[in-house]
Specification:
Number of strands: 10
Order of helices and strands: HHHEHEHHEHEHEHHHEHEEHEEH
Strand content: 5-15%
Protein name: SIS domain-containing protein
Radius of gyration: 20 Å
Helix content: 40-55%
GO molecular function, one term: carbohydrate derivative binding
Pfam family, one: SIS
CATH architecture of the largest domain: 3-Layer(aba) Sandwich
Keywords: Repeat
Number of helices: 14
GO cellular component, one term: plasma membrane
């Protein structure tokens, strides 16, 4: 399948560039460490403050990956709320008297909801701060906040503003930036090295698509549920919806969603590094292997030893045992990106633009932001 990837494809280049961008991002974060710490300190020292992670589409899933782990790490309210929800119903999601740090993720910063969410927060909240994490320094969101009091704009490395339809390196770069900024130092080099190794073995992953699955299910627990959601979206986007995708938690899958399984369904399970949570992930792997067969269950595991997960087709990420799930998961999500691209090519589509007639667009169009009154 690798040999079939057309030269000059933005999607493939942007998948492959991620380890390099993460290493560049680590340098940027180190350079701006004191400045960023000074901005965050009042929010981290205020025990009443709430942290809201927001974005639309893939950018919203960055928050879903991070919120469970950051809540535990910071011992405070950290919630993932999509900009699409904030803009549609601000009074349901914003508490006026609760100090709130709004962390906004945006690839281009040009989506109507991106700026609107920050403006509504200013309108509704008594005290609000803005950490803007974006890949486009010239986007509306970055420009609106670059000199604003109470705002900090963190721009991702050059090249992260993906030119392809689906977000890949922009998603992982922004998620990693927030993980380090809010959660403290992470093993960036270990994750980048694991991704390098995975890309060198990409043929193993692409071979799974040779069976031409008609449906793909992604399962994960805790932070990895957000990763599963992003993985499913990637497949829907890159195949223009021709391959059905679903995401669920390992425990939740039995409660109805399991009805999606067919003899031609591929299930991808992200195994948690948390020993307790991992037991539930392994239980569903055992059940699915018995039902579908090992060739239709792809296990993505941070533990490169894999001693407790011999079942299914396994992709181990070397050198990431013991890392927090949202950290090693950034290398693990490359599996879904490669699966999505391979399925797209297999269908005869162009991954850079799977919707050539414009039904779905790289930057959302057609949104009218209505004024908030009352």
């Amino acid at each position: 399948m690798t040999d079939q990837v057309p030269s000059g494809l933005h999607t493939d280049r942007e998948i492959r560039q991620q380890p390099r961008l993460w290493r560049e991002l680590a340098v940027t974060l180190d350079t701006r460490r004191e400045e960023l710490a000074a901005f965050l300190r009042p929010w981290m020292e205020d025990a009443t403050a709430r942290v809201v992670l927001t974005g639309a589409g893939t950018s919203a899933y960055a928050g879903q990956v991070l919120a469970p782990w950051l809540s535990r790490r910071l011992q405070r309210r950290v919630e993932a709320i999509a900009t699409t929800d904030l803009v549609a119903a601000p009074h349901e999601h914003l508490s006026p008297d609760v100090p709130t740090l709004l962390v906004s993720f945006a690839r281009s910063g040009q989506s109507p909801e991106s700026v609107a969410a920050t403006e509504l927060a200013e309108q509704v909240l008594t005290r609000v701060g803005h950490l803007i994490i974006t890949c486009n320094p010239d986007g509306h969101l970055a420009r609106a906040h670059e000199r604003a009091e109470g705002s900090f704009v963190l721009v991702m490395p050059e090249g992260s503003n993906d030119q392809s339809f689906a977000m890949t390196s922009s998603f992982t770069s922004m998620t990693l930036a927030a993980l380090v900024a809010l959660g403290g130092p992470q093993e960036v080099e270990a994750v980048a090295a694991a991704a390098d190794d995975l890309l060198a073995r990409r043929g193993e992953i692409e071979a799974v698509v040779a069976a031409r699955p008609e449906r793909v299910v992604y399962l994960g627990s805790g932070a990895l549920l957000g990763l599963a959601e992003e993985s499913a979206l990637k497949l829907l986007e890159l195949t223009a919806g021709q391959v059905v995708a679903w995401a669920e938690s390992s425990l939740g899958f039995r409660h109805g969603p399991k009805a999606i399984l067919t003899p031609r369904t591929l299930v991808v399970v992200y195994l948690s590094n948390d020993p307790y949570t991992r037991r539930y992930d392994l239980d569903i792997v055992t059940e699915l292997v018995a039902q579908l067969g090992p060739e239709q269950v792809l296990v993505v595991d941070a533990d490169d030893r894999g001693s407790d997960a011999p079942q299914g087709t396994r992709v181990g990420l070397v050198g990431t045992a013991g890392l927090p799930d949202p950290c090693w998961g950034l290398a693990g999500v490359l599996v879904a990106q490669l699966v999505g691209q391979a399925c797209s090519l297999d269908l005869g589509l162009v991954p850079d633009n799977p919707f050539p007639t414009g039904e779905v667009n790289r930057v959302v169009r057609g949104v009218t932001v209505h004024p908030l009154t009352g």
